[in-house]
Amino acid sequence: MSGTELISTAEPSLAPPPSFWNSPGFRRFRRHKLAVFGATAIVLMTLACIVGPLLLPYNDTFIDIRQRFAPPFSGPHVLGTDPLGRDILARLLMAGRISLAVGFSAMVISMAIGICVGMVAGFYEGVIGATLMRFVDAMLCFPSIFLLLAISALISPSVPSIVMLIAMTSWMEVARVVEAQMRSLRTRDFAVAAVSMGSSNARIMFRELLPNAVAPIVVAATLNVAHAILAESYISFLGYGIQPPTPSWGNMLEGAQSYLTSAPWLAILPGAAITLAVTSFNFVGDGLRDALDPRLDLP
Question: What confidence score (pLDDT) does residue 279 get?
Answer without folding.
Answer: 93
